[in-house]
Amino acid sequence: MSPETETLRLQLEEVGARHWWAALLATLSSQSGNAYIRFVGVVDGRARYRGAAFPVPRLWGTVPPQDQWAPGMDDSLAEIQHRIEGDGWRPVDHGAQPWEVTYQRPSTPGASR
Fold first, then answer.
1. How far apart are CA 38 and CA 34, in angstroms?
2. What kind and span of H or E run contains 5?
3. DSSP 8-state code for residue 79
4. For the region Disordered, what residue ranges are annotated (predicted)?
5. Which structural domain range is residue 69 located in?
6. Above 70 in pLDDT, residue 52?
7. 54 within some domain
8. What element of type H or E holds 34?
9. Under a CB-based contact definition with an 8 Å cutoff, are residues 54 and 69 in contact?
10. Residue 111 placed within a domain
11. Can you give the pLDDT at residue 113?
């Protein structure tokens, strides 16, 4: 019998997307025309890892960020991936974007809390 595994998905999220008060603070403190997004490592619908926020122009629709116009994106991605992999997660799938990575690791007792 194989050990059970946890699955983590790396995603983009606007700062404050999970809490109304954080969204309000991010909006009030942002430069005109900018939104702030970050990478999050999500397990069972809960963010376990949060990367550094970086600015992106507020656009209509969804446009994947690129480091040329989203300064700090590459550094934020490298930092969160380093922390995730340092905690024993291993990449098992990659999507079209560099941050679309699915990781897995053996489950640990109490990890799903």
1. 13
2. strand 5-14
3. H
4. 88-113
5. 5-106
6. yes
7. yes
8. strand 34-43
9. no
10. no
11. 37
